[in-house]
Design a protein that fits this description.
The protein has a single domain, classed as Jelly Rolls (Sandwich), CATH 2.60.120.620. A hairpin with a 6-residue loop joins strand 2 and strand 3. With 199 residues, the chain is an alpha+beta fold. The protein contains 3 helices and 10 strands; from the N terminus they run E-H-E-E-H-E-E-E-E-E-E-E-H. Strands 1, 2, 3, 4, 5, 6, 7, 8, 9 and 10 form a 10-stranded antiparallel sheet that branches.
């Protein structure tokens, strides 16, 4: 009887493509979660904790600051960001912004220590899209939607991003939450820790 030939089939491992510039993450928060976050942000604005932003180089007509609930979402999405970028990123800080009628976000890059940012819309009174725009490494301008619960992951300290001036009614606004993370090998991380220790 002839011996049967043993065949070894090589299984090719498919390498997952990591995010290097930006990613449209789709919807990552429920309407209920968005309302809980936006309600706290508006409450902190009314208490004078989240204030009108004064640096005209970057902002006009928007309120900015930190609502404590944003730290919960930083922790929740940390494992996902690590998986998407392939690095054990660490917390930088969260931030929240209320865009009002006439608000502008001028073209800019983020601080050196803010390698990755999840930008998620937690409230919008608009019935049209008001996208975040970003210039990529190949000089193309991409637009990421600003819809309720919809998020983008952006390499904000490398690539210029901005928004066109917001035109809406005075009682309307758009609220976004930003979750900032830092690469473990970012030299700016060590510098910030050293500066904080020496203060």
């Amino acid at each position: 009887m002839a011996k049967s030939k043993k065949t070894t089939k090589k299984v090719k491992k498919v390498k997952k493509e990591l995010v290097t510039e930006y990613l449209d993450m789709g919807v990552i928060m429920t309407p209920e979660e968005c309302k809980a976050v936006s309600d706290e942000i508006l409450e902190y604005r009314d208490l004078g904790i989240i204030n009108m932003e004064s640096d005209a180089r970057y902002y006009k007509g928007s309120h900015g600051g930190i609502a404590p609930i944003s730290y919960d979402f930083m922790g929740r999405f940390l494992p996902l960001v690590r998986e998407l970028v392939g690095k054990k990123v660490v917390f930088a800080n969260p931030f929240c912004r209320i865009y009002n009628n006439g608000s502008t976000l001028n073209p800019h890059t983020d601080r050196d220590v803010l390698d990755w940012t999840i930008s998620v819309c937690v409230k919008t009174d608009l019935n049209w899209d008001w996208p975040l725009k970003m210039k990529t490494s190949d000089k193309k301008v991409v637009s990421v939607p600003t819809r309720l619960g919809h998020a983008s992951l952006v390499r904000g300290n490398v690539y210029t991003h901005w928004r066109e001036p917001l035109v809406c009614e005075d009682h309307e606004n758009v609220i976004c939450m930003f979750l900032h993370y830092t690469n473990p090998d970012n030299p700016a991380l060590t510098q910030e820790i050293t500066a904080t220790t020496e203060e």
